[in-house]
């Protein structure tokens, strides 16, 4: 993707956070056609900040798509806005280079490359599908010894999306209900528990000074280590922290939207994570650790939390960046 972006004039994307940040990093206008999750939020934010157009992938007509492409290509104000943003990014402190990977692993690779360049030892605890894919970057790979069958990276999630009905012409409200009722979060959580002994052994072997996770919940191994841990959010920042002035994550609601709709959506969204958090609390109690608020969607690090999102798209016009949070334009390094 990062090899193609410099060659095109307009990007048509589903609106995943990596695609949005990478496209912005190359100064390209976007047509965003979201399918599920935080893609709704990214599509809405790109459009309401004037950097692209949001379309419904299930109902858009050929003519509507062509008209949208023409509109973006001929928008002189947009070209100027993108050039200003691109200049700001190019003049920033980081020397950006693409990290070719899948989803959240891309974010962690970006950070890890910077740490590696400064002489730190980097160990990735990975599932079998990523074996052999991170060592070329100079990282140490430790494969979690679960019973997972051999799959391509992201293949399990892709199968879930296709089988669950999430990628269909449903509202973001219905999409959250499908996620809640699908059982995928149970599989996700059970896999974490199966992998825990292996993770504990890896931690004992390498004795890390710092943990970096891109996950909904930190492993008890990490919590009990008394070592600092960094929470990386490779999704739209609405997924990382909650602010009453902002729409709920994964809703795609506009900033000036109906607050009653926000309230109803937040209720369903919170309920989607309650069951997982109850199971997580039981796990923490087994290890003699403090429990968490079952109504919290994500567990923030008390040390540092990092999210990747372009400054021009961020929500700082509505809320400041919270304490112990850091924004970067992109996780590409």
Outline the fold blueprint.
Elements (H helix, E strand, L loop, with lengths): L10 E3 L3 H9 L4 E3 L6 H10 L3 E3 L7 H12 L2 H15 L12 H15 L5 E4 L13 E4 L11 H10 L7 H11 L1 H23 L4 E3 L6 H5 L4 E5 L25 H28 L17 E5 L16 E4 L5
Parallel strand pairs: 1-2, 2-3, 4-5, 6-7, 7-8, 8-9
Helix pairs in contact: 7-10
Beta fraction: 5-15%
- The fold-level CATH name of the largest domain is Rossmann fold
How many DSSP E strands? 9
Mean pLDDT reading: 88
Strand order of the largest sheet: 6-7-8-9
Inertia-based shape: globular
GO molecular function: UDP-glycosyltransferase activity
Keywords: Glycosyltransferase, Transferase
Pfam family, one: UDPGT
Family: Belongs to the UDP-glycosyltransferase family.
Could you list some keywords that capture this structure?
333 residues, four-stranded parallel sheet, 2 domains, Rossmann fold, three-stranded parallel sheet
